[in-house]
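sanity check this fold:
=====
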Amino acid sequence: QVQLVESGGGLVQAGGSLRLSCAASGSIASISTMGWYRQAPGKLRELVARISSGGSTNYADSVKGRFTISRGNAKNTVYLQMDSLKAEDTAVYYCNTEIGWTWPPRPQSRWGQGTQVTVSS
């Protein structure tokens, strides 16, 4: 199994930036794609961005041009640089992993605690 730990959230004013980090541990040899998801109060969890082992990316339309996903040198880390944040970006952000690169995304790991991002307007 893969364990996921997210960090880097916080409170920021609209227009500000945050950088989220996620580290996976455990059975990381099976990890191919890593992604970020978010869940706002009263809403379903949604994909924010994902990146394949080869560097291919998908972004939600709502974050294109503002968020950038990247992977660390270690296969088991993924980052989300969030710029020009808006109040509607407020949510708990989670990372997850996939085996392969398919559509729709198929998160494979148990969800972690997530990290809260709050954007004040």
User: Anything to note?
Assistant: The chain has a mean pLDDT of 95. The longest strand covers residues 18-26.
